MFS transporter (Thalassospira profundimaris), 385 residues
Amino acid sequence: MRAFLPIVFLYGTGLCASMQVGLVGPIANMLRGQFDLSQAEFGLVASLITAAGALCALPSGIWAARLGLKKAVMAGVITMALGALVFSQADHIAFLYLGRFLTSIGYLLIVVAAPSWMTHLGNRRVVALAMGLWGTFVPVGIALGTWISAGLSAWLGWRAAVLGCALPGLVFILPLMLRTAPAREGFGRSLTSGIAGVLRNKNALAVSLTFAIFGGTTSATVAFMPAMLMDRLGIGLTMAATIIGVTTIIGNIGGSLLGGILLGRNVQGRVLLLFGLPLMAISIAIIYSAPGLITVVAVLCAFNIGQGIVAGTCFALLPRIAGKTLSMPALQGMLAQFAEIFVVIIPPVSGLIIDDFAWHGAAMAFALFYLLAMTIAGKRIRIVA
């Protein structure tokens, strides 16, 4: 129990970080109307949440370790809240960009420091459970962000929605302030040696690139999905967000549990990725082109089961890859940097595709991105988890 509670609080900070990705979908039409944004410009607003990570996530793992993982998590939540405040008070597109960039700094600190702190909270079994739980923070956080943003924006406006998705992080860090900071053993690596170690590891590179394409594509699908459902199916924002939220939470938890059971029975992580990624590719192609609501809801469940399997597997592979020779914060940083580069790139590109080829074009593009990630996983990942 002593280890379980801080894991829950750290997971909560991760949820608040990922809520920053999900919150923009429901307020897309409001932002586009108020600031006269094109789909590509909105895609940039959405993707800037990971701009800091795209620039320096890998070295930030080493810096966060030197600062102290506890301090890094605290700084991350506070910076994220500050960025949300700037974003929520924006009266010009430049302040939207500035607020999202500040938020991205906080997001980065959380995603490299919180899971690294988790690895110091118990034995191998506890750590494995914690990392499996952490593997769901992106999709579940995105779903919660979408849901909360839809409710608050419909009731109080988009500015309240932005703040409502960031301020809960301050609640999660309060009990963490009372926790003893993790031991600093292994955190004294030089920047060069820490980065070089993870960059030379073929499994680390393969998992990071697979997760990057997966993460960038998933960020784009979720950012545009509320608008797509409203446009194609003629439903309201609240219903669209509820459908996305419920199917995401249920599907991802189910997928993560399934992946954890199979990993516990010595199924290779690569095999799980080769199942989850094509499942997502087929599902998203149907979701963005199917004419009926019932079909969309059913396939969304399958999509999110695949998402839970893929995300949980990627994170579950990290401690085994790190072993005793690699810096876990640096490995987390590399995973984050690769992912955030693609999260910056794929949503704006997807916006251009939607502008030119409508939702059917997006369906094909998203499916191809997931199949590319599957190809990399199949050819490059060779570790058993």
User: Anything to note?
Assistant: The two ends are 26 Å apart (CA to CA). The chain has one domain: 4-380. The CA atoms of residues 203 and 381 lie 5 Å apart. The mean pLDDT is 82.
